[in-house]
Design a protein that fits this description.
The protein is α/β, with parallel strands linked by helices. It has a single domain (3-211), classed as Rossmann fold. The chain has helices at 17-32, 53-61, 70-87, 105-114, 163-174, 193-211; strands at 3-8, 37-42, 91-97, 121-124, 127-130, 136-143, 178-185. Strands 2-1-3-6-7 form a 5-stranded parallel β-sheet, sandwiched between helices. The longest helix has 19 residues, at 193-211. It is globular and about 55 Å long. The protein starts with a strand and ends in a 5-residue tail after the last helix. The model has no long low-confidence stretch (mean pLDDT 85).
Length: 216
């Protein structure tokens, strides 16, 4: 039985645009995958442990800096628990609202917590390599106002969008390469916003129906 991890990084609840699009995805996903487990993780519920000094010190022991004593191991066990919840999923639904050109701090906190050597990536003489395999993700990107006066298709390397480029880098780091993005880069003063939102909802349902069905 496969599991979908639904990662929520917007605090706006029922007013969240990314949340509304995610619900459209989930409605179709449940129809297409009636036996799948859906694990909802709201990053605002305070359950993700703070990645403090002890946890950082524990992480560095895997790179040869210090030893994993009992005190550090106790801190590390909390990280392992959160990371295993992440890595045990087969599929992911991630909502990513744009905050100041990037991602919400709670999502960055979560990424820092689950991106761990020996758990989601490895490290050797030639650098980093991913440890997760055969996973797929639907990532929902939203923004209220996207670069006023600048077309939304301006390349990310120009520094206008650190949202998509960062998430793609991170997913690749841990080994998730089968990625289905949905973008609602709206504008609070754009009269076409409602039409663009409808397109995003249609895209969410279509991706859930066509790309997230177990082939027997």
């Amino acid at each position: 039985m496969k599991k979908l991890l639904h990662i929520i990084s917007s605090p706006r609840k029922e007013k969240s645009k990314s949340g509304a699009i995610a619900q459209e995805f989930l409605k179709q996903y449940k129809l297409s995958n009636p036996h799948a487990i859906i694990d909802e993780l709201n990053l605002w519920d305070g359950t993700i442990p703070t990645f403090d000094g002890d946890k950082a010190a524990a992480k560095m022991t895997f790179f040869g800096d210090g030893t994993l004593n009992e005190e550090l191991k106790s801190s590390w066990d909390k990280v392992v628990e959160v990371t295993e919840r992440f890595s045990s999923a087969d599929e992911y639904l991630i909502t990513v609202p744009m905050w100041n050109g990037g991602i919400p701090w709670v999502l960055k906190h979560y990424i820092d917590t689950v991106s761990q050597p020996g758990l989601t990536f490895g490290f050797g003489p030639e650098g980093y390599f991913p440890l997760l395999k055969d996973k797929k993700a639907c990532v929902i990107y939203t923004s209220g106002v996207y670069s006023p006066g600048v077309p939304a298709d301006v390349p990310a390397e120009l520094g206008l969008d650190f949202q998509v480029s960062y998430i793609n880098w991170w997913l690749g780091l841990v080994g998730i390469k089968d990625i289905y993005p949905i973008k609602f880069l709206g504008n609070l003063v754009n009269p076409d916003t409602e039409k663009d939102a409808s397109k995003a909802l249609e895209s969410a349902a279509s991706i859930a129906k066509d790309c997230f069905v177990k082939i027997i």
